[in-house]
Amino acid sequence: MAGARMRWLSAILQGFLLALVGLGIWDVLFVYEENRCSMTYMFEYPEYIKIKLPYKVSSKYQNYDLYLYGEGDSAEAHNLKTTGIPVLFLPGNAGSYRQVRSLGSVALRKAENIHNKFHFDFFSIDFNEELVALYGGSLEKQTKFVHACIKVILKLYKDQKDAPCSVAIVGHSMGGIIARALFTLPNFKPTLISLIITQATPHVAPVLPVDSYLIDFYNTVNNYWILKEKDLRNITVLSMGGGFRDYQVRSGLTILPSLGLYNNTLNVVTSAVPRAWLSTDHLCIVWCKELVLATVRAFFDLVDHQTNQITSDLEKRISVLHHHFVNYSEKYSEDNLESSVEFSDSSATWSVINTYTWTYSSPEFSAWEPKAAYFLLPLPSEGEPHNNLYCRTTNLEPSTWIYGCMKVDQSVCQEGIDLTGEAELLKMYKIVNFNLDDYRSFSHFIIHISKANVNKRFNIECEFLRAESRMMTTQVTNILSFGTSSNRVVINSAGLIHKVKLQNFNQIYQAFKIHVRSNCQFTHGKTEDVYRFHVPWSHEDFVVTTSVPSSTVIFAKLHSARPENDSSVPELQLHTARSCQYEITIRTSFLEVLGQLIRFHGIHLPTYVVVNILLAFGRQLIHLYSEGHCLDFNSALNAASKPYIVIPFINLAVFLLRYDWFKETWSNLMLPDIDVLPSNEQGIAYPMISILLFLFGTAIAYWNGIFLRVLLRQLSFLWSIFQRPRVIQKEYKKLNFRSSSIMIFLLFIIWTTCGAAALILGYILYLVKVLSLQASVRTMKSILNLAPKQEIIKKGAFACSAKEGDKSRTKEPEQLSPDNNKLLSVSDVDDAVDTLQIHTTILHLLNWVILFSAPSFIYWFKNLRYSRRLDPDPCGSVAIILVFSMGLLINSHSTSVKRSKLLKHTARLQLLLAIASAAFGLEHLYRVPYFVTFSLVLYSLGCLV
Predict the structure, then answer these.
(1) Cβ of 721: how many Cβ atoms within 10 Å?
(2) Is the same domain home to 575 and 623?
(3) Would you kindly state one Gene Ontology biological process term found in this protein's UniProt entry (predicted)?
(4) Which strands sit side by side in the sheet containing 402-409, from one edge to the other?
(5) What is the DSSP letter of 225?
(6) How far is the C-alpha of 329 from the C-alpha of 416, rounded, in Å?
(7) Does 807 score more than 70 pLDDT?
(8) Phi/psi of residue 868, each to 5°?
């Protein structure tokens, strides 16, 4: 009774943990803002003109092609006569060359708007939609093909005046990695590329490291860019992350690894991109109109009008990208913002504003009389408390609008400096926020309005303020509060801007629900507020607009942890209305915390599941050695899955690696780095998270065990239809002709096709074996239950004295018995159950091996028409070893294992394998099948010895 109660409690606990995992996955996949991107459209039918490649290139890369994009008349005009600026688009994992359409179409329309003074030629590569995010064996091949294509593209311009000598690259997803990998080629000239724009590219590490070739490729690229950073300082790189809508590539992975010695890279999240301010999913980032427009505008502003090619000025490239993707201002960044100007428009009206708070609302356009108007705002004297000027406008779009004035004569500014470039576009407002200490040489600020640039009503609001009075600080709630406690801030707004600093908010596992309620005494017409969550150490802000009064919820969470040497804190900026009260409530969002945990560490869950299965397998073998029978999988899992027997050893090793003597010893043993170290460097690893993930892995393994047990029982009934169950023999046949033939066949499959294909075939055969065992055990139990008394059956006495009708009931076990002179006993059934329990656990381990090898199989199957054999094959060595092991295990029996001299050692080594898997398989998932293989090899050797 007590044992049943414990099993129920265990099931409830594991179910609760599994529910937490499900909630975290639900938050990552489904709980995010809706897709607010606008679709890009074409005005003419798109054409993809295939570029003829040299025979040497086309014969070597038969499944790859190069295309030039065009539309309608422009496609006919091209006719392979390229006269523009070359841009090469590289698709990502399973991406299509047709994804260049959005950029190409918008660029064609913009070129028409400037009367085709210059235009861009958009090329795209067809990688046959290969799954390079799952299989890294073709990444080097793709890189070399791109190198060949760049040479072909530049040759198309060889007869053109001012012919381009470089190509700009736009890479989506893994295409961005290919673009950076070009520089690692031995014969590649860095001058062939001047600009790289990547979209949702995981630069830091692969999303699913299930392939050693993928890891090696990443290490080569990132190490090269770090070590050769000085040599690559003239290459400008912009990396865009999609934000929280992109559940395939989290934005923290899109940050380019760098020593930070040279300012040639820019990392942004799309939610912070001006005039976009939205998050995108992994594919949407390619066609999202708001981002496509920003990218195309940047391309056109990057052109040197003397050469009609992308400028070679590094500072200009960075400033243009910063202008379009970080801090958009009305004035183009290349203009000289410090030039002096004089105002000589005698018909303009001048107004001096002598108040610290000023609002101007224009009349209807038809009623606005002056051709131009100037509003002079005198600077407060140095002794006054006002140290900032904040101004914002709505619906005002002149090319210049704010100046600093040095001389004033009869209300006319004789000399001024254009400060428009320091204005920032913030969704519905254009704002400036000046520190007056930096502008004490001025006597006035000037707001300039020209009727020629006014087409609708507009508003201007300005105020001189003391910055400290508008800054508030509050502590965020503790993560363990689970939303039960809250921090509250009340702002009685008398101004236009307020800031709330969120202290102790610097870790990725923190997530908060910020509720902003606004209530105004009176409003004149429709009033809008803008709230911005600003992260100072990275460009990952997001902006929310709302009407007044309102109740707005903001989910505050981070894409990257705060750097070690940074003391800044995130802040909530509120661009508010006057005479309103704002109540800000901050709570820990438990669902969002789970989402962050899964987003950053969900990739570790498969490893922890395997760790738990190995521990359960070891406990089963120990119980078989000491007690003579085997526990079922879930009972063994409950007894063995303790995080304190795995996690402390890893933490101890991480601690000792701080010391040189231990690090030297570790190196002499040729052990790889512990996988938790990169997470520590990124600031996303904590001991409590490891324990929690371990428990999550236990829950997944537990319920996976229940599901597999139920599934095997149901499938065994179907299997009984095709094959009659029989009593399991205790004798272990190490190898027979059929097993040897199957092993030879699978080895032939590995040699001629793909190791993953052989593993899947072997797994199917092993599954059939387990189904047969399940059906046989059920049959043996039913035979044993047919007898009226078990002890009479054991002795055989009842068989001699039974009536004729009862004798027929005892014939069935005699007929099914492997030895007709010996009747079926309870020990026979127990041994059969033990055999089934062990084979079921082995099936659990094989399930994950198959899962880790599935990407290679999918890649091989998809490219089967081009190549029958997968080369290189990441699963080849594992497949060869497992084929031999499964050949030995498929006929194994628990009685032979009990007599094994290696059983005790095999059982104890499972703990070491579990620790090794947790230490070296979190960030390198491809290593996990090796540990599983080693476990099965040890067990199969125990069947022999």
Answers:
(1) 8
(2) no
(3) GPI anchor metabolic process
(4) 340-341, 412-418, 402-409, 444-450, 372-378, 349-352
(5) H
(6) 19
(7) no
(8) -80, -30
Q: Tell me if 8 is assigned to some domain.
A: no
- Looking at residue 451, what is its pLDDT? 64
Sign of CA dihedral 246, 143, 60, 747: negative
Is 574 a member of any domain?
yes
C-alpha R_g of the chain: 35
Q: What is the DSSP string of 357-411?
A: EEEEE---GGG---SEEEEEEEPPPTTSS--EEEEEEES---S--EEEEEEEETT
Question: In 3-state terms, what secondary structure has residue 934?
Answer: helix
Concatenated DSSP letters of 662-701: HHHHHHHTTPPPPTHHHHHHHT---HHHHHHHHHHHHHHH
Q: How far is CA 456 from CA 330, 364, 425, 790, in A?
A: 18, 7, 18, 97
Token pair belonging to 341: 């100007």
In whole angstroms, give the CA distance from residue 91 to residue 184.
20
Residue 675 and residue 732 in one domain: yes
Residues with Cβ < 8 Å from 700, sequence gap 6 or more? 18, 21, 605, 609
Q: What is the DSSP letter of 333?
A: T
Residues 571 and 606 in one domain: no
291 sits in the region (left: phi over 0; alpha: psi -120 to 50; else beta) called: alpha
Give 940's strand partners. none
166 and 294 share a domain?
A: yes
Respond yes or no on whether the N-terminal peptide bond of residue 549 is cis (omega within 30° of 0): yes
344 in the same domain as 284: no
Contact 81, 88 (CB under 8 A): no
3-class DSSP state for residue 83? coil
- Token pair for 564: 């070690």
Quickly tell me which residue has 């001048």 as its tokens.
Answer: 350
Contact 531, 546 (CB under 8 A): yes
Q: Which domain holds residue 508?
A: 469-588
pLDDT per residue as tens digits for the range 135-194? 999 999 999 999 999 999 999 988 787 788 999 999 999 999 999 999 999 989 999 998
Last residue of a domain, one of 293, 325, 357: 325
817, 703, 848, 715: which is closest to 769 by C-alpha?
Answer: 715
Question: Does residue 628 sit in helix, strand or coil?
Answer: coil
Specify the range with the lowest mean pLDDT, choosing from 97-111, 461-475, 813-827, 869-883: 813-827
Residue 10 lies in a domain: no
Distances (CA, A) of 131 to 174, 215, 869: 10, 15, 16
Active-site residue among 102, 173, 251, 589? 173
3-state secondary structure of 922: coil
Q: Are residues 428 and 561 in the same domain?
A: no
Secondary structure in 3-state letters for 93-139: CCCCHHHHHHHHHHHHHHHHHCCCCCCEEEEEEECCCCCCCCCHHHH
Q: Are residues 447 and 558 in the same domain?
A: no
DSSP string, 475-534: EPPPGGGTTSSEEEEEEEE-SSEEEEEEET---TT-EEEEEEEEEES--SS--EEEEEEE
* Residue 676 pLDDT grade (very low, low, confident, very high; cuts 50, 70, 90): confident
Structural domain contains residue 29: no
Instruction: State which of 325, 352, 373 marks the end of a domain.
Output: 325
366 part of the active site = no
User: Is pLDDT of 290 > 80?
Assistant: yes
d(CA 214, CA 208): 9
d(CA 489, CA 361): 31
- What span, in angstroms and rounded, lies between the C-alpha atoms of 254 and 252? 5
CATH number at 142 reads 3.40.50.1820
The pTM of the full predicted model, rounded to 2 decimals, is 0.89
Taking the CA atoms of 537, 542, 548 and 551 in sequence, report the sign of the dihedral they define: negative
Q: List the one residue out of 385, 366, 369, 394 whose CA is nearest residue 436.
A: 385
> How many domains are there within the chain?
4
Whether residue 314 sits in one domain with residue 418: no
The whole-number average pLDDT for the span 333-342 is 54
Cβ pair 256, 224 in contact under 8 A: no
For residue 591, with 0-12 CB atoms within 10 Å meaning exposed, 13-18 middle and 19 or more buried, which class applies?
middle
